[in-house]
Amino acid sequence: MKKTMIAGAVIASLTMATAVSAKEGNYVGFGLSQQGLDTGFFDADMMTLDGKVGTYFNENFSGELRLGLGVQDDTVFGTDVDIDNYYGAYVRFGAPVTDGFYPYAIAGYTNTKVGYSGGGSESESDFSYGLGADMAITNDVDFTVEYMRYLDKDAGELDGIGVGFKFKF
């Protein structure tokens, strides 16, 4: 699934027409993320449906709130493992390279709840960081690609590769 998402992101970014991409105002977005949990004892690959709402403070800084819900789990040693949900607050720093390409670094705080088929679950919170890019499709719509390290704790690491769309208003 990761290969499919990466291939789709590359193809989409190569075929997009350059569009003027004003970085002001507010935005909402949605997408899918392939999440990888590595505990040192087991690895699990899961998928989340992600939503975000944000605002540009200026051309280089924006802030956003995100919520993700698990849509695909993984089975490890006969136990289903899934991300029940995650939420967080983040600050993005970026700079337009062209009118239609805006790479950025992102950092913030994430709370994630992982569930297990036996009825148990655990929540973890941590500093999060990543890299991404917005690629303008039109003046008001961007295609987004992003890598995030959501959690980096002794109990494990949670990484995500996501693609989505952002709508400016």
TrEMBL record:
Domain Outer membrane protein beta-barrel: 9-169
Position of the signal peptide: 1-22
Superkingdom as given in the UniProt entry: Bacteria
Key words of the record: Signal
Gene3D superfamilies: 2.40.160.20
Protein name: Outer membrane protein beta-barrel domain-containing protein
Species the sequence originates in: Kangiella koreensis (strain DSM 16069 / JCM 12317 / KCTC 12182 / SW-125)
